[in-house]
Fold this sequence. Notes:
Elements: E1 6-11, E2 14-19, H1 30-44, E3 51-56, H2 68-72, H3 76-95
Parallel strand pairs: 2-3
Antiparallel strand pairs: 1-2
Helix pairs in contact: 1-3
Amino acid sequence: MEYQNLRLSIDSGVAWITIDRPRALNALNRETLCELDGVFEQLRNDSEVRVLVLTGAGEKAFVAGADIKELAENNALKSNLHARMGQRLMDKLETL
């Protein structure tokens, strides 16, 4: 699968996911959260992957947090949905 904001490589049972939005300090926008959800599902079903390394591109930040520019355009309901999506994603990561 091809991603816009992530890079995935798998070598010897180790999956490397790089969040690749260095100009935005790898801030988690909706598209990136959706891509992470997809890659976590892909890895959940790959019996050869034993280790997951999650990293960020660039020199300044692993992940700055939520994408504030995107959140500024949201109303309260959309912001709440974004936060819930992020929490579900972190729950999914925890159970991998």
